[in-house]
Amino acid sequence: MMRLLTGVASSDTFAFEPISIRGIANKVFVEGKGSSPGLYWVHIWTVKDQRICQLREYFNTAILVTDLKPVKPNPHVIQNHPSATLWQSQLWKSKEGRSMPGLILTI
To answer: Which PANTHER family match (predicted)?
Structure first.
């Protein structure tokens, strides 16, 4: 997918270096950076029967994953919406992420 999305020539090499991996239920969230500065990736794998059955790939996009199930209200915390953050990419709050698009995924 990277070659199709970025237009990198097939003779060029590309290294994906994972910087965080987290599994939640049947989803695996992998965030990484490319071999060139400014290239960031998030892969979201759906696993079934110990096999990856779906792959979502996001390029230079900050990702926030939330659960829409209502959370217990906490009188000490002001919340704008009744959801819980399950995972967020490091780009979400980084200086580099401020100029990149953000995406909120709900599961």
So the answer is: OS07G0691300 PROTEIN, WOUND-INDUCED PROTEIN 1
